[in-house]
Amino acid sequence: MLNIDPGMMIWTWITFFIVLFILSKIALKPIMEAIESREKSIREDLETAHRQREEAESLLEKHRQLIAGAEQEAQKLIKESQQLAEKARQEIIEGARQESSRLIEKARQEIEHEKESALASLRAEVADLAIGAAEKVILQSLDEEKQKKVVDEYIKSMPKSIKN
After folding, report:
1. How many domains does the structure of the chain reveal?
2. Distance CA 34, CA 19 (A)
3. Is the entire prediction scored with pTM above 0.90?
4. Would you call 30 exposed, middle or buried from its count of C-beta atoms within 10 A (0-12, 13-18, 19+)?
5. CB 107 within 8 Å of CB 146
6. Cα–Cα distance between 135 and 143 in angstroms, integer?
7. What DSSP element (H or E) covers 108?
8. Quick one: which of 115, 94, 116, 104 has its CA closest to 150?
9. Is residue 83 part of a domain?
């Protein structure tokens, strides 16, 4: 069984306190310094991580604002481009209308000139009948030709997106 020896117990306690005292004088200070150093290092790392997180969040917000600004600028440019395209389309259409009017007027003048020349050169009844027939043929062919020319020019002047 277990026997308790009071002398051994006293020497064990004395040895324990001596080792404890020696360790507290020799090892406790370096151990405490190491623990404090480690604690300080961890605290600094946490503060650095916190600062870096705040900086990252700030940068993220700045990037979001830049993206929003870029999107607004893109929408503005798209709108301006659409307005310019519409203006150009209107100008092209107006130009085609003016050109078709000019061509029609020129054709009318040419028809009138030809008609006057034919009437002046032909004096007989047969000539009057020929002039009337020729006038009908010329008017019909010019009307069809003018219409085709106007339609073709109008289609060519239209923007590609409208043709499709």
Report:
1. 1
2. 21
3. no
4. exposed
5. yes
6. 12
7. helix 28-121
8. 104
9. yes
